[in-house]
């Protein structure tokens, strides 16, 4: 269904749309839809279309992200903006959103409203990330709000759709929605930690990419918010305010950050989000899908070592 939805009459639009679908990816969001559907009837007619909707929406954001980030590679393949043009990439993303909306129309007005509100959060999160915190804002609180809106919102909707469209009871729908939002935040925090701490490229990108690109993630915010006056702390805070595209400065900053107590504090925050999600999930009926969800909470923590 995912492939069928992106194929159209225009050859270029079809080729560009198929580009990221065929490049693969974890299919994490549709997996959550299917998993959550086991709290109702997993064979209900709206479940698979909803799984396609969330993946199309996610893919659409990736096309737009690559334009904004001027990315050249996505999922091991040449990015659409690099292979064609920014205009083609933007319009392809728009096309995927349109195809998702077409599927949504058959799932009822409540599903349309849920998706529209999640999409508004996605855009708000991207704007907030682009503009940055205001002069009087708490940078860490701002960062966590960006994570919740930009990343966790669609992950929450994935669980919500699976439970809702399978006919699960409302309290189950609400619990899964809330837990999936927390899982989404935890996944992003684990990516933050992996980007700094991994010695290989297993995280999907070269370690220290966020540092090099000037993207401040949880460990960096914790360093900058710290009150320690040690020489290494002062040096690291100074580096985090600089352009780290220079290889030597980047390597120094990465080494200091890896050794900083902020990494342990970030792991503690990650565990808290995952444990909060687990606590909510354990109130659900004891079926294999619940065990799969709680195992997912364990995995989010364990992948950071």
UniProtKB/TrEMBL annotation:
The keyword Cell cycle does not apply. SUPFAM superfamilies: Terpenoid synthases. InterPro entries: Isoprenoid_synthase_dom_sf (IPR008949), Polyprenyl_synt (IPR000092), Polyprenyl_synt_CS (IPR033749). Gene3D superfamilies: Farnesyl Diphosphate Synthase. Its cofactor is Mg(2+). It comes from the Bacteria. Belongs to the FPP/GGPP synthase family. This is Polyprenyl synthetase family protein.
